[in-house]
UniProtKB/TrEMBL annotation:
Species assigned in the record: Martelella mangrovi
Record PROSITE patterns: HTH_TETR_2
Protein name as catalogued: TetR/AcrR family transcriptional regulator
Keywords from the named record: DNA-binding
Top-level division of the source organism's lineage: Bacteria
Chain residues forming the annotated DNA-binding region: 19-38
Domain HTH tetR-type: 1-56
Length: 195
């Protein structure tokens, strides 16, 4: 209950703007009760960010070298959009943390995340060597997919405002998936039938 409340507070206010009082109020608890379970705001944030990071890497962990690059890229885009749809608070929490210079997640970014991205960059390069993908920098490819998919969580208010009443419902994620699949797949997959 405390971590759910903390997710609301931290994702809305960032680490600096959040207080234990706000977390307690959101959780419907007293501040001493929160501090009984977590010694400080930092302890709450550390527990929360560890939980979020575990889930956050799942779509990339599933990126499979043994599968067809087109289907894997499509699947990865869809998994990332599902994260944006289903976990918008977590996305905003992560974005706020990175914007602040990653004071609480720098070790994670330079360690576990970097190692996983390095591993998946090798998958992209293997597909390129096999003539299945155009020669693009794998790291910038991942950055681009992250930026375009997480936009739908981090800037949801903007997306809804621009799309308007008719297009801003749940169907916006399917529309986004089709667009992003076209953008990335058409730009990356080598069509062997074309001269």
């Amino acid at each position: 209950m405390i971590l759910e409340a903390a997710l609301d507070v931290f994702s809305a206010n960032g680490f600096r703007g959040a207080t234990v009082d706000q977390i307690a109020e959101t959780a419907g608890m007293s501040k001493p009760n929160v501090l009984y379970y977590f010694r400080s705001k930092e302890a709450v944030f550390t527990a929360l960010i560890a939980r979020v990071m575990e889930v956050w890497l799942d779509p990339l962990r599933l990126f499979d070298a043994e599968k067809d690059p087109e289907s894997e890229i499509r699947s990865y885009i869809r998994r990332k959009l599902e994260m944006a749809r289903d976990f918008p608070r977590e996305s905003r929490l992560f974005a706020n943390e990175v914007i602040q210079g990653a004071p609480n997640t720098g070790v994670f970014l330079q360690g576990e995340l970097k190692d996983l991205v390095d591993e998946k960059a090798k998958v992209i390069r293997a597909w390129q060597r096999a003539g299945k993908l155009r020669q693009v920098d794998p790291y910038h490819l991942f950055f681009s997919i992250w930026a375009t998919t997480q936009h739908y969580a981090d800037f949801d208010v903007q997306v809804r405002a621009v799309l308007g009443d008719g297009l801003s419902g749940e169907g916006r994620f399917e529309d986004a998936a089709r667009y992003l699949e076209t953008l990335f797949v058409k730009g990356l997959i080598i069509d062997r039938d074309q001269p």
